[in-house]
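Supplementary Methods, section 5.1.

A reviewer requested that the exact input to the structure prediction be made available. We therefore reproduce it here, unchanged from the version used in the analyses.
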Amino acid sequence: MNNRVISLAHGSGGRLTQELIEEIIYPAFGNNGGNPLLDSALLTIDYKKIAFTTDSFVVSPLFFEGGDIGKLAACGTINDLAVCGATPLYISVGLIIEEGFSVELLKKILRSLASAAGDAGVLVVTGDTKVVERGNADGIYINTAGIGVLPQDVRVGPEMIEPGDLIFISGAVGDHGMSVLTKREGLSYQIPVASDCAPLNSLIKSLLETSGIKCMKDPTRGGLATALVELAEQSKTLMEISEERIPIRQTVSLGCDLLGLDPLYLANEGNLLIIAKADKESEIAAVLDNHPLGKEAKLIGRVVSYRDKGMVLLETPLGVKRILTMLEGEQLPRIC
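The structure derived from this sequence is encoded token-by-token as follows.
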């Protein structure tokens, strides 16, 4: 890590975040036995497989079209468990509240969190509360941890990816990032952009029943592009994606053009990146089409070959292929 102080870009979910984890944080804990860096830790206790994850939420503003920090905390934790193939069961909620924060807003946030968890069949079972001096917490921060169980016959992850596999995205990309940005900056559009924030465990459960799923990831910080590059590097494969096939709402596309942003790097909070067997295409497409969170799903590309260093190529509408990279800086801080 060349930069010897922490910057906002280190929290972007992109290349600098990866360097911070791999060069500073991961080695401090003995490299966790060499286990892969996934959205959840996969553990075995008394011959039973569980998934364990933790996350912190510092989104600004606290409320936005389609969600708030409470809903975001529940969904983010549930999704990190589900993409690893686990059935989410329990979460914890740690609150860091700034002195002077409105009790009514706190109640609203907690109701939202409880509702999202309840909709996903997940229980909030423990937590902690701290209050800090005025000016030290931007209202409220939420930390969560989650536990889920892994069926013995389910195995998904980057190590399962191989040439010939298909790449799907479950819905339009960039909605969450644009929703937060427009609220933060006081922008308005004729058609408001709502965050896609949602628990994905129900959709994932249905997909796993097809027996064709190789790997899944929710493209949050760093967006779709960063998630694809991360999976390509972990699996040491070459992936090719069609830009024309990626679903992007016109409002999101126009907003990105206006603000100089790339929608492929905007955060998503209820979207699923899926890599699956080619011979299961019709079954997977049917599951997606029959689920509320998969109605806008698209097949966007495929895994082409193995490669010593993973790479993602994006084919533009002009037929030109360019290399996709991880988010290098910080498009939009404080997004989740």
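The two ends are 24 Å apart (CA to CA). These observations are discussed further in the main text.
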